[in-house]
């Protein structure tokens, strides 16, 4: 279990979801992960922070009624200077869609996309350092970019966040692990034509669960969908699921937990 401290720039530090039905979404994730909720910064509209044992693990906000945007989990990458990061992102071919702007005393943020369209956030911590606990069921444990091919975006992320890249040596598996300070923090996964057309390139959040099969059944009972049934993976037993509004995420029981 890890308390929130200052993150090395480029480290995934927070995940956030913007939805149309905040009350129903709270009920779904509360039942699935055991989350409780408290109000967070309201600069972009109603927003709650999800807690596990009193510690912040994720955020859920309300989309304006007239904004018909895709509902998706957003990975926030740490930065020491959101304005400088936004400028670097623009210079490297990315787009800054929102901000940089202050979220009260919590910190400063921007919502961006990489050169092939995958959306991510940058977070300059103030009073809010990010996810305050990790490794237990209900916490985000991994973040991975699903894209057409890693070669198209690897240089972008390396330039913006100074990642060291470790490729998987395989003729048919396009996968790069992103390292900071000698440890893996995220990954880029090129899946080519297997990328869903309705979503395009996107960052995927993995949430730890105690039992992947039981959690997948619960997702369905709560009104969500199982998009890829539980299976054994390199890091544990996992399943690809979606909440009732269509936000896609992966549940995993890690082999090391």
Could you characterize the architecture of this molecule?
The protein is of the alpha+beta class. Helix content is 16%, strand content 43%. The protein is built from four helices and 16 strands. It has helices at residues 22-33, 82-91, 154-161, 212-221, and strands at residues 12-19, 36-39, 47-52, 55-62, 73-78, 95-102, 107-113, 119-125, 140-147, 164-167, 174-180, 183-190, 202-208, 225-233, 236-242, 248-254. The strands form two sheets. An eight-stranded mixed beta sheet has the order 2-3-4-1-5-8-7-6, covered by helices on one side. The protein has an eight-stranded mixed beta sheet with strand order 10-11-12-9-13-16-15-14, with helices on one face. It is globular and about 45 Å long. 43% of the residues are buried.
Which structural traits does this protein have?
eight-stranded mixed β-sheet, alpha+beta, about 260 residues, about 15% helix, 16 strands
Distance between the ends: 11 Å
Low-confidence stretches: none
Helix share of residues? 10-25%
Average predicted local confidence, pLDDT: 92
Percent of sequence in beta strands: 35-45%
Q: If helices are DSSP runs of H or I spanning 4 or more residues, what is the number of helices?
A: 4
Largest sheet: 8 strands, mixed
Q: What is the H-and-E element order?
A: EHEEEEHEEEEHEEEEHEEE
Q: Give the overall silhouette.
A: globular
Query: What order do the strands of the largest sheet run in, or round the barrel if closed?
Result: 2-3-4-1-5-8-7-6
Number of strands: 16
Secondary-structure class: alpha+beta
Rg calc: 17 Å
């Amino acid at each position: 279990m890890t308390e929130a401290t200052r993150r090395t720039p480029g480290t995934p530090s927070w995940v956030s979801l913007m939805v149309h039905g905040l009350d129903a979404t709270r009920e779904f994730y509360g039942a699935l992960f055991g989350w409780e909720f408290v109000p967070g910064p309201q600069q972009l509209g109603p927003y709650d922070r999800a807690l596990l044992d009193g510690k912040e693990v994720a955020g859920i906000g309300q989309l304006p009624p007239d904004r018909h945007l895709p509902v998706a989990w957003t990975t926030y990458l740490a930065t020491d200077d959101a304005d400088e990061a936004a400028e670097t992102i623009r210079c490297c071919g990315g787009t800054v869609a929102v901000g940089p702007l202050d979220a009260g005393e919590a910190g400063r943020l921007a919502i961006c996309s990489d050169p092939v369209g995958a959306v991510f956030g940058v977070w300059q911590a103030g009073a809010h350092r990010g996810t305050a606990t990790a490794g237990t069921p209900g916490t985000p444990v991994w973040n991975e970019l699903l894209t057409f091919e890693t070669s198209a975006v690897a240089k972008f992320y390396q330039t913006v966040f100074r990642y060291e890249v470790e490729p998987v040596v395989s003729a048919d598996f396009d996968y790069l692990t992103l390292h900071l300070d000698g440890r893996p923090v995220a990954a880029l996964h090129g899946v080519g034509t297997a990328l869903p057309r309705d979503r395009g390139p996107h960052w995927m959040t993995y949430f730890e669960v105690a039992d992947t099969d039981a959690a997948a059944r619960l997702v369905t009972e709560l009104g969500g969908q199982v998009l890829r049934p539980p299976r054994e993976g390199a890091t544990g037993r996992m399943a690809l699921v979606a909440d009732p509004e269509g936000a896609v995420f992966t549940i995993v029981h890690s082999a090391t937990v």
